[in-house]
Amino acid sequence: MTQRIEDYALIGDLQTAALVGMNGSIDWLCLPRFDSAPCFAALLGDEDNGHWQIAPTGAGNCTRRGYLGDSLVLESVWETRTGTVKITDFMPQRDVAPDIVRIVEGVSGSVDMSATLRLRFDFGSIVPWVRRSDGHRVAVAGPDSVWLRSEPEVKTWGQHFSTRSSFTVGEGEKVAFVLTWHPSHEPRPPLVDPYESLRHSLEDWESWAGHCQYKGPHRAAVMRSLITLKALTYGPTGGIVAAPTTSLPEDLGGVRNWDYRYCWLRDSTLVLGALLSVGYQDEAAAWRDWLLRAVAGDPADLQIMYGLAGERRLPETELPWLSGYADSTPVRAGNSAVDQLQLDVYGEVIDSLHVARTAGIAATPHAWNLELSLLGFLESKWREPDEGLWEVRGPRRHFVHSKVMAWVAADRAVRTLEADPSLSGDARRWRNMRDEVHREVCEKGYDPVRNTFTQSYGSSELDAATLLIPRVGFLPPDDPRVIGTVDAVRTELGHEGLVRRYTAQGPELDGLPGGEGTFLVCSFWMADALHMTGRTEEAEELFERLLSLRNDVGLLAEEYDPVAGRQLGNYPQAFSHIGLVVTALTLAGIGTAG
């Protein structure tokens, strides 16, 4: 595909999302959920794998585009030789079925338009049967059915297993297209009015944005990131997907291509803290409730990620018929990292529930018993090696960040019992565990010669996750070991002013060939750490640099290649946008450590 990752904008309906290119083509859409098989998969292959383009005939990328106010309604404008036209793209929050609405409007002059709808179900592999019915084009294959209509009707015909349209719009003229999915065994859902849907969508988003309590610097950037996080929320359950895409590469042409259409526990504390800090109590409560449902059960079975409703089985498969974005293969569906042992997630879950309780979110009767169960399991397991936060596919190690999060788990339990002695639990027991973990990390995870915490016990490698040590309260920001770690990470993991995740890459180290770009959330962590260690001016400079890496509509992927000047990885990435919000709050004096 000719579109860069950052050339795409996001639209969605709080159950799934689509990526719209600057060329007017929707190249990615999974229906009916984020984790369903896509019907448009050109993003990971070519046009024959499914897309839907509407644009001026013969035109390239749009002249300009942007979201309308604080919404997820996208407006793209083309200025052509004969006139100017705009396309408004959005997905109404669904009543019954998912819809995509695309409204073409003439602004000036007269513009010839072309549209191509190429549906390919099941990751671009299945060509549907298409027929006409009551002014619609109806595409059916197996369990999927899609209906397309336009208001008013325009000239439409079939060509090369696609549906083509051509029409002309003059100043003030409008043509609305509506694409609706439903299970093929069910009757067609009720038709939506495209213009009423537009009005309601704008009202809904503006109303939601109006609840944001943040009034500090960079509010527009914070609001756009919050809207993006809301767009990545699966409304029926409150789960937040890491990204709406799979297999966008961390290394162009490489194999580091993963499926991020699931909910990671590692995001939970930062998500909760950010939402609560800006006034989104309902969203925070929904995420907390999703978390409790997902992790319920035997603590030995705790996973690092779950499906949108808490599903546990996420088997990883490769899709060889897709050529991959920029020939980056394999393309994967599912994620086998779900089976990894990552001990840090126990700390993240317990910390999240502590944050929620402290913020006044009503506790559920079983939440504390669940925490005690998780902590009891961690007490017997924290001394073991694991795969760590970054899900390395190499040998297990004693990752420092995993041990620090075990300390967090014990610390939060102690704090909870101190605040509410009526709760069951042995505070002395958890204090002893907390002290033992702290002592071991400082002895085995710290290099006194270089004055830095390392990635794992006995390793010389560094890890950006150690930047979180002062934020979680393991050591105070003015501790010389914290300051030394920040300096070492900036020196050894820094790349063109940004930060990599860790030093060690390659088959022998993290289990994979090739490398990757700088990890955006790690660069936000660096800004936080610089501020916390008294270097606020440097933190603000780095934050401004990170803001400049967003695309024209304010979106960030997982990584950034500062040499090529391109975004990399799945997109848009929740972790990156959480990092942006947290850093903005931290610099504004709102973010808290520990």
Short description:
The chain contains 13 helices and 28 strands.
Write the layout of secondary structure elements.
Blueprint: E1 8-12, E2 17-21, E3 25-30, E4 38-40, E5 51-56, E6 64-67, E7 74-79, E8 83-90, E9 99-118, H1 121-124, E10 129-133, E11 136-141, E12 144-151, E13 155-159, E14 162-170, E15 174-183, H2 194-209, H3 219-231, E16 233-234, E17 239-240, E18 263-264, H4 268-277, H5 281-295, E19 305-306, E20 317-318, E21 332-333, H6 344-358, H7 367-381, H8 400-419, H9 427-444, E22 446-447, E23 452-453, H10 480-492, E24 494-495, E25 498-499, E26 518-519, H11 520-532, H12 536-548, E27 559-561, E28 566-568, H13 574-587
Rg, rounded, reads 25 Å
The overall pLDDT average reads 94
Major sheet description:
15 strands, antiparallel
Shape: globular
User: Quick one: how many beta strands?
Assistant: 28
Description:
The protein is of the alpha+beta class. It has 13 helices and 28 strands. It has a 15-stranded antiparallel β-sheet that branches. It has a three-stranded antiparallel β-sheet with strand order 26-27-28. Strands 16-17 form a two-stranded antiparallel sheet. Strand 3 (25-30) and strand 4 form a beta hairpin. Helix 5 runs antiparallel to helix 6 (344-358) and helix 12 runs antiparallel to helix 13.
